[in-house]
Amino acid sequence: MRAKLSYLLTAAVLVFYFVLVGSRGVMLIQSSTLVTVTFGVAVLVLPVIGLWFLWKNTQFVRRANALAAELDAEGGLPVDELKRTPSGRIDRDSADEVFARRRAETEAAPDDWRSWFRLAVAYHDARDTPRARKAMQRAIALHDGRPVQQL
Q: Among 18, 56, 20, 69, which Cα is nearest to 133's?
């Protein structure tokens, strides 16, 4: 719940920022000189890109959460079996061991979104965020029946 609130707060701040920057871009365009109109259009591009990125990220999170809920209902969520250091951080060797099992599971069933979901969690636990995101995107695509790109 704390992560959800943090995400919502960050999104709200970003939207406020995009509105603020967009209004400045409009003000520059209204000045009606070649230089200010050019800068105004350039300034308006930034909030558009930011809103697009925020929208795509929000869709990704919602889809991943929906998969987690479905997998939880099936009883297939990965169990947290990772060893932790005294400070609470995940032990790297433990994460690597679980990752190896998850990778083997995914290689055995490459078209199963569930195995890709669990592999994404293992990548995340191993602190490999880019690969975790790609594995989760593949799980989402497989679940939705869309063609998947190679990981």
A: 56
pLDDT, one tens digit per residue, over 42-100 is 999 999 999 999 999 999 999 999 999 999 999 888 888 788 888 888 888 888 888 88
**Measuring CA to CA, how many Å separate 21 from each of 28, 38, 115, 144?**
11, 15, 43, 36
Six token digits for residue 27: 């003000």
Question: What's at 79, amino acid-wise?
Answer: V
- Given CA atoms 116, 99, 60, 70 in this order, what sign does their dihedral have? positive
For residues 21 and 43, the answer to whether their CB atoms sit within 8 Å is yes
How far apart are alpha carbons 19 and 21 in whole angstroms?
6
For residue 66, give the 3-state DSSP assignment. Answer: helix
